[in-house]
Amino acid sequence: MRDLSSPAMQGSGAMEKWGFIAMHAVVAAAFIFLLQRFGLNASLESSLLWALTFGICAAGLAYKQSNR
Q1: Rounded to 10 degrees, what is the CA torsion of 12, 15, 21, 27?
Q2: 37, 44 in Cβ contact below 8 A?
Q3: What is the DSSP letter of 2?
Q4: Furthest-apart CA atoms within the chain: distance in Å
Q5: Which residues, other chains included, contact 42 with Cβ-Cβ below 8 Å and sequence gap of 6+?
Q6: pTM, 2 dp
Q7: Crossing angle for the helix pair 12-34 and 44-66, to the nearest 10 degrees
Q8: How does the average pLDDT of the chain come out, rounded?
Q9: Taking 90 as the threshold, does the pLDDT of residue 43 lie above it?
Q10: Is 36 helix (H, G, I), strand (E, B) or coil?
């Protein structure tokens, strides 16, 4: 395992945090878009709106978790 307290790793911690948050938001948005569009046969506009909403919520949750 990597030692996060080493000086070489201190600068990349913030980048990993924002990368994790972005990945979480994209995966949640893609999941809900595919579910809405193809699983529930919703319109494109509705699917995009739900994807945006879930992506924002997922990013917020990931941000709160990363600050624990």
Answers
A1: -100
A2: yes
A3: -
A4: 51
A5: 36, 50
A6: 0.74
A7: 150
A8: 86
A9: yes
A10: helix
- Three-state DSSP at 32 gives helix
CA 2 from centroid of its chain's CA atoms: 24
Helices (H), 5-43: 12-34
- For the chain, the residue count is 68
Tokens of 63: 């941000």
Angstrom CA distances, 24 to 9, 14, 21, 41, stand at 22, 15, 5, 24
> Which pairs count as long-range contacts for 15-22, CB under 8 Å and 24+ apart, including other chains?
17/66, 20/62, 20/66, 21/59, 21/62, 21/63, 21/66, 22/59
Q: Are 54 and 28 in contact (CB under 8 A)?
A: yes
